[in-house]
Fold each of these.
Amino acid sequence: MSTTASRRPYFLVFAALMGLLVLTVAVSFIPYGRLAWLGILIALTIAAVKAVLVALWFMHLKGSPRLVRIFVVSGILWLLILFHLTLVDYLTRGSLPVSRGWVERTVRDR
């Protein structure tokens, strides 16, 4: 029995990634019109599938111990918390007024 892993899964994952790349490019050329959010949703879904494939096979998470998986999931959750806090801060701010002080000062100084 050989101690080296088979290369076949890596080539299959690579082929799947290339197929998803072609799908991403094809989806980007579809005119969505008023449904632009649908194009963004499809592109993000394809990107998530590609990220999972890379993490499971090329980063060897598929056969990793449970503790490593817990750390990966906790890192993703922490990233989602930071995205959420940033989005909440951005969406709850009112429109900031544009300061005219700099423009007026430069016009007066001439």
Amino acid sequence: MEWTHWFHTAERHVADTLIGEVRISTVFLALDYSFSMKGPPILFETMILGGEDDGFQRRYCTWQEAEQGHQEIVLFVKQFSKAESQINELFKELEIESLLKEIKK
């Protein structure tokens, strides 16, 4: 009972970042997700919620690995988001150029 109460009331977030409509959440799972007796316990998880990579996840053994992994995924999402913005901007420019050419005809 005591563990169950703790599990439902404890602050288990390692980090939580929102980039546009994409959320990157890293939490302490409180259970070993390695599901084996080999190797260290896997106790942390980062998940991307929303966007193109919705559902992507990575798991870690330590709090420090989870913090680092969270930052790596944040960087990945920011870079992808920036590239996507640049591509969208390029398409807008091409559409405008195409419309101007049509108007000049």
Amino acid sequence: MSDIFQEVEEDVRRERYEQLWKKYGNYVIAAAAVLVLVVAGYQAWAAYDTNQRQQVSDKYEGAQKIAGTGKAADAEPQFAELSQSGYSGYATLSKFNLVGAYLAQNKRDQAVALLRELTEYSDDEVSSIARLRLAWLEADARPRGELLPIVEPLTAADNPWRFAAAEVLAYAELRGGSRVQAEADYLKLSQEAEASPGLRDRAAAILQYLRANPAAGAPAPAPAAVPAPSAAPAPAAVPSKGTTK
């Protein structure tokens, strides 16, 4: 008797599955097809994106090589094109390189304008580096009062760029005729344990020069590399006049 009930139960279950399949089978097939298309579409997009990134990377490397040979005029349009790419890391790095290309061709106004644009970036690293490069670019043309607003956001006690900002302001003090204050600033910087060794050494060297040459004017600031933002794979440091972290 139990076998009969079991057979009836299996028949009922099979009939129910058949009814469900007739009712919803097309939807299941459609859903499976959509899933396959989505996966295939994503894989195709990922392959395309990887290819595009590689092309941008190759173009960036090529532009850097051209700039490295001193052909700033040839590198400029390439960096300009890359700066408009959809990959923010390479776009940002290209803008910093474009600043260098402008300066190599004495296009100071374009360089200043682009650095001011970069100071408005929400990325703190990018905006901080742009501020320092802009401040050093303007250091020989503007008084301390006009340089201060550029670097003031970096002067907070917990800001990692505070010593680099202080170096710019010390040079501005010296160039503006406040020699005593400048010497005090350089002395303080040379003794800052948390400042980079390179920055301390520069400050000490300038202080030594000033003390040994009381009548001398402001020496040209020693160039130091401002690191490029780490926004793209294996970026090369963008050299600039000014300071290090």
Amino acid sequence: MFRTSQPSSPRRPRPARLLLLALALALLPGVQSAIGAPAPSASAQSAPAPPTPAPSASAQSAPAPPAPAPFAPDVVVVKYATGTPLARMAGAGGDTRAIASHTRLLRLPPGVSLATTLARLRHRRDVQWAVPDYLARDSETTARAPEATLIPNDPGTAHTPGGWEQLQWNFAGEFGVNAPEAWANLAADHAWGGSNRGVIVAVLDTGIAYANRGRFRRSPDFTASQFVAGYDFVDHTPYANDRNGHGTHVAGTIAEATGNSLDLTGLAYGVRLMPIRVLNAEGEGDASVIAQGVRFAVNHHASVINLSLEFSSFVTASDIPDLLEALRYAHRHGVLVVAAAGNEGHRVIAYPARAPNVVKVGATTEHGCLASYSNDGSRLTLVAPGGGPDADLPGDPNCRPEAPVGRNIFQVTFTGNPRRFGIPTDYDGTSMATPHVSATAALIIASRVLGPHPTPAQIVARLRATARKLGDPGDRELYGAGLVDAGAATAPGGPGAVG
């Protein structure tokens, strides 16, 4: 099961290192879109502790062990061997439901032991694997045309045209993702003219404030035309309305309406968003539910999947086989998956980001330092702005943990009441960094700098090659390839470019 992330203890001091990675994508203003916290819930309990993932060789000291991974106490996810009769799968006991080919979600009757059921199933020859349904959490650290036309007129909180720049350092600041240059690149290429260049980004999260329905309202800085049909896998309805605010914030970074004289900007504001609700109102979600969301996004033509969520460090690959199969399914079908590295300040990337062929995103601060909460390690792909406090990295001139903390990431969302929107100040985390990379990937696709149908591997290579290098040459475990640069990634020429 996945659950919302809370602030971890301050990152331990490390040798001098520098971290900066801001990855963002945005579309030019005025151009017609053509790409179209709390603790686990009472129903969760602690799992028997599986082996903790081994830290990277460069780790200097062992971090405090995380809490045991929580899971649903009455649910088993079972993968049967090919050819197993349906009747035999249905006869496993309890209420069964198909969630993928030969994979069943088994809900146990009251009084039936989860451990006994797992042991029994694992001894059957027709069962490939049987696991509890682990809980994941969102990766937020708090509970909560002409050149002149390329600078959006969105006012932010300054109530003056262009006031967004005073808040959105992550887009246009010294350690931002170079959004204005990316917008200029796409304008010069006429990249948003034509429905054949549509790009869909699926946001698997707490939902999005995308529609006026019942007690829910669409965020004032979104329009109905920005969305394609999604699904709510938590409540099993077609309406993926946000009940938390986290998913709306994440979606805003990717594609909030831009150049409309309202509020703030989105990096890839011409893309279409697919709202898929896999986390509940507390920001928690089961692995099996997230897996269903991934398959839905792939089957409904998403180009990029954003996963601003993480599992406990105790969760290993053997605990979430269904989700890993869904991620492989996405890769086989040419869909790029971008995920948060996690907020525990560890030298180990959390799942699902740790899975193969997933872009693993760490977080940087307004000062251009690695964020104190951000996981890192040899598998990190790159970093992007996540806000919050600097890590204690002696010798890195950009890291000043003793100085006032830099600003967090600002976007329009709601807090508490899904009918009242504002620009909260308390959103930071690798959850906030991840959509910068998803948006940049969408801009790369829309720009056609890599051709009309780039593969995930080509997009990742472009992201790595154009990232701003940070720290010393030996700092790849802290910053991966560097700070994502949307302007460089969408510029003509360069690594992998065609035409």
